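Margin note: ligand = farnesyl diphosphate.
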Amino acid sequence: MLIHYKRKIDYSNIPRHVAIIMDGNGRWAKRRGLPRIEGHRRGAETIERCMDTAIELGINVVSLYAFSTENWSRPKEEINGLWNLLESFFEKKLNTIIEKGVQVRHSGSLKELPVNVQRIITDAVEKSKNNSRIILNFCLNYGGRHEIIHAVNEWLQKKPSQELSLTPEIFESYLYTRGLPDVDLLIRTSGEYRISNFLLWQIAYAELVFMKVLWPDFNEKHLYQAIYEYQHRERRFGGL
Ligand code: FPP
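Resulting structure:
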């Protein structure tokens, strides 16, 4: 199956920016009688495999929805488990991430996060800032509506006095994703058909691919399959 997709992909038409809603960790664990955090742990492992495949494909940016502004409503135990996981993920993997040429970026609001998580993210961003093979845009404490409001407020505070209104270009320069291309392909795993407040501005013309696979089971084949589907859509950007 993988060989089949590898042969059929058009390598001259790879999406530049792929955004992923990594859904289904909890269900993956529940089906195995395991605690939910075990699903998240396996989900974190999927990230490394997914980035390797993205590099192989020549994707420029991968945005991952790791924690939304709405995820604070989950039980404290699960939230703390996620922070521990994040800490051990970056402790174990940061050197490899840097060696592979990955530039880590963060989208979202850092200041509400535990201080050690803020430090880990800032450190990963700083240490990998000169890498240019691929960008991993880690969306943590991220919400699309929050990002839009935040951008407008930043503009109001920082704008030159002669700048009387926003243009799309000015607005984009205040987003967390400033400088990144628009999302070409949005993938959501686990069979749910929702956007859940992810990159609302950036997905304006994205192709949406919903897959049944639960995130911990997502592998190389699924990414190739999503790219294949993307390449068979007709992107018109509002034209004919
Ligand atoms: C959605 O699954 C997933 C999340 C809310 C968290 C995503 C986090 C990871 C993949 C791991 C975190 C990354 C690092 C680097 C630590 P869900 O829990 O909503 O699943 P469910 O819908 O089946 O309950």
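The domain at 15-186+199-231 is CATH 3.40.1180.10 (Undecaprenyl pyrophosphate synthetase).
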